[in-house]
Protein 1
Amino acid sequence: MKSAIALASGGLDSTTAIAIAQTQGFDIHALTIDYGQRHRCEIEAAKNVIKALGIRQHVILAIDLRAFGGSALTANIDVPKNRDVTKIDDAIPVTYVPARNTIFLSLALGWCEALGAQDIIIGANAVDYSGYPDCRPAFLEAFERLAKVATKAGVEEQADYKIYAPLLRLTKAQIIRAGVEAGVDYSLTHSCYDPSPEGLACGECDSCVIRKRGFQEAGILDPTRYR
Ligand SMILES: [Zn+2]
């Protein structure tokens, strides 16, 4: 089995990407970044999904991006609600966290090289998403090139680093169907940017709206607990 590092947020996409990677024979080492996100229950969800997927090694790394702010997820900025989903990808919304996936992939690459692995799994999606630039194919391709020139393993051993993003070109409905097929229990996952203190989803932020529509389009019962 090929070892791989997987970024695990506890959300629908990363959980599905990991489950798909497992069916393709990867031995997953899960990495969750506790970046001070306002939706704290993501971390609990990540622990639960990683356990349910039978992954033995799960590192939760704390790096508090609230020190930088600049996002509705890391600063005192309201999370936009009830936006028109057909216009959702027109402009990059305030829920964008500055350079988040660059930071996360850099941390994953550090562990990847230390472990002697070459694959990093990420649930990036460039179809049903909020238009974040660091979810697009061009970004992931550039990061692969960076990994090869940035590491000792890349330079001395020609390590062929790959960013494995199996959801990149799927709709949310396709992602959910693939996840159900791979055995994902979506009731364990958390997507909402602005949950209640008990962890109930708001049903109105972009993440909730996209997720809800995905279940509807997939014809699968949405197990999300809404407030
Ligand atoms: Zn929400």
Protein 2
Amino acid sequence: MKPGRHFLQIPGPTNVPDRVLRAIAEPTIDHRGPAFAALGREVLEGLQRVFQTEGSVVIYPSSGTGAWEAALVNTLSPGDRVLMFETGHFAALWRDMAVRLGLNVEFVEGDWRHGVDPDVVHARLVDDREKTIRAVAIVHNETSTGVTSRVAEVRKQMDAANHPALLLVDTISSLGSIDYRHDEWGVDVTVGGSQKGLMLPPGLGFNAISAKALAASRAARLPKAYWDWAPMLRDNRNGFFPYTPATNLLYGLREALQMLFEERLPHVFARHTRFGEATRRAVRAWGLEILAVNPDEYSNSLTAVIVPESHDADRLRQAILEHYDMSLGTGLGRLKGKVFRIGHLGDLNDLMLAGTLSGVEMGLAICRVPFNPGGVSAALAYLSVAGD
Ligand SMILES: Cc1ncc(COP(=O)(O)O)c(C=O)c1O
């Protein structure tokens, strides 16, 4: 028996608000009946506001990985050249998927501490004189590293290179927490998931689709059936789905969207900006290093913290779980044991963040990791003067 509430401070899945849990608990309805059509339309329109697009959004009963696959198979053909960037673990997994699907991926190496360099995008596209690169696929917020890539600048460099490649962007850990503008930034397919900024359990994947991506889908020849946009878009027009949708998660989505709109999206983004800054102030005061190198690329939804070399980040996480009932994110891939990740996104307020940082500071002490006390005080000093 552990009294009090578990602190789920991994960078997704995030805490699911009680309002959303209650909505999900409503009885399942006929997904071909009139009540469902209203629900379908409402969530599809609400998602357009979150993706900041006038174009179509589709919802799959899948995790984010399914939505990655949908973005690729709907827009590309076997052997197509795709430019991808090694910003971290998730970028590497998306690359692996693209290779397995039969795409010809050029993977620009990276050190897992920087985002996509827009100048490299420009140089690679200018070099492609025959214009055979079909897509540039990047991760907006690398959940493994806490580095956010500058999507608008990438777009600018693609335009400067006068290149027709599609721009595909993964926003799985930024949607609903970091400002993201599908239309304004000229993104062709945006990939999202339910379990992070949208404050839902895992189980829904999204694609936001530009007119150019839709046109590309008509010529794309990678095999697809379940992920095919065409039947989805056809049935979505009336609020329905071509197969049984995840009805109860859609109830939750309706409630979560309502919550985001009640708070107002600019405020949601500002709240996450404050939490990111407060967390970084705590880490610096502890004398620990933030994995992200470039302040322009700091993630406001999570912070990856490097532990001193003689210590194991997973042992620290385990001690914090045992003593304080708090889950922190593990180091993924080549970062295993070297970093822990503090999730500060989703349904979170100042006191929850203060509790999270307190758990980290106490954990550092019990594990005898060398650090300077005062991180929590630095965060509190910032939170109490930086209005929201
Ligand atoms: C940036 C990013 N992309 C893709 C994924 C994969 O999504 P899922 O685990 O929901 O399939 C994740 C999961 O955490 C992620 O953070």
